[in-house]
Design goal:
- There is one protein chain.
- By secondary structure, the chain is mostly beta strands.
- It has a single domain, classed as monomeric porin ompg (Porin), CATH 2.40.160.40.
- A twelve-stranded antiparallel β-barrel has the order 2-3-4-5-6-7-8-9-10-11-12-13.
- A hairpin with a 2-residue loop joins strand 10 and strand 11.
- The chain is globular.
Length: 251
């Protein structure tokens, strides 16, 4: 019975891949008073759309926190097999620093690198900064709004050519964090990222995660992600969504 339970946890049904915006909100350990915190998660996915895709995803998160400072690092790696042909890698590395100068106001700065051959993204680099506001003070229910400006450099592959873009985008997000018990958390975040000089060029990403503790240091996590890109790379759909389930180990 226990083996069947583990098999269910590691099983995953996903429809279209490629969540291109990192939802940092689902990774923060906001209620932990310790200085160091981290977790490692593993997801396995079978995806069926125009192609058959098998995916193994690993995410590592390390966080250091003091009264006013927070530093977190995320390394998100995916290994995908397309139609039994070959394996391709997809990855995101994200480093973020927060300084809280008011109980409800924090200044954020981040840098991110990304590559995603499935979405024709050879490289994407981001550098951004801006304020983050805590709207609800309750420890059981948290509501945040962030408004950042970021520089984006991107290389995409289209018709065997490398296309480069260098843009400035806004990044506004709304995050709702619910903690109905010590064992369960629900975190939903929506990002809106328009190009500053061309507002019709924008991305919207929403992600909702349900996490509940199984036993000490182990948790089950189920996440649904929806991404809309008004100007995706050539041959890539403007709307993509994904549902993943997996185990996470915290330390």
């Amino acid at each position: 019975m226990f083996k069947r339970y583990l098999l269910f946890i590691f099983s995953c049904v996903c429809i279209t891949a490629s969540a291109q915006i990192v939802n940092v909100e689902s990774l923060r350990k906001v209620s932990d008073t310790s200085r160091w915190y981290g977790f490692v998660s593993l997801d396995v996915a079978l995806i069926k759309n125009k192609r058959d895709i098998f995916k193994i995803a690993n995410r590592t998160h390390i966080q250091y926190k003091t009264d006013k400072n927070l530093v977190l690092f995320i390394n998100d790696l995916n290994l995908q097999q397309l139609d039994s042909e070959r394996f391709v890698n997809r990855g995101i590395q994200h480093l973020r620093y927060n300084y809280r100068f008011h109980p409800r106001v924090t200044w954020e700065a981040f840098v991110q690198t990304q590559y995603d051959p499935v979405s024709n993204i050879k490289f994407r680099g981001l550098l951004g900064s801006g304020p983050r506001f805590k709207i609800l003070p309750s420890e059981k229910h948290k509501f945040y709004i962030g408004t950042l400006v970021m520089y984006e450099y991107e290389e995409t592959e289209e018709l065997d050519q490398i296309i480069t873009n260098s843009d400035v985008r806004g990044s506004t997000y709304i995050s709702v964090n619910l903690y109905p018990s010590n064992q369960v958390s629900i975190i939903s975040t929506t990002y809106y990222q328009p190009k500053i000089d061309l507002l019709k060029d924008y991305r919207i990403s929403t992600e909702t995660s349900l996490v509940f503790s199984i036993f000490k240091n182990f948790a089950f996590k189920s996440t649904f992600t929806l991404l809309f890109d008004s100007f995706p790379a050539m041959g890539i759909p403007d709307t993509q969504y994904e549902w993943t389930n997996g185990l996470a180990y915290s330390f």
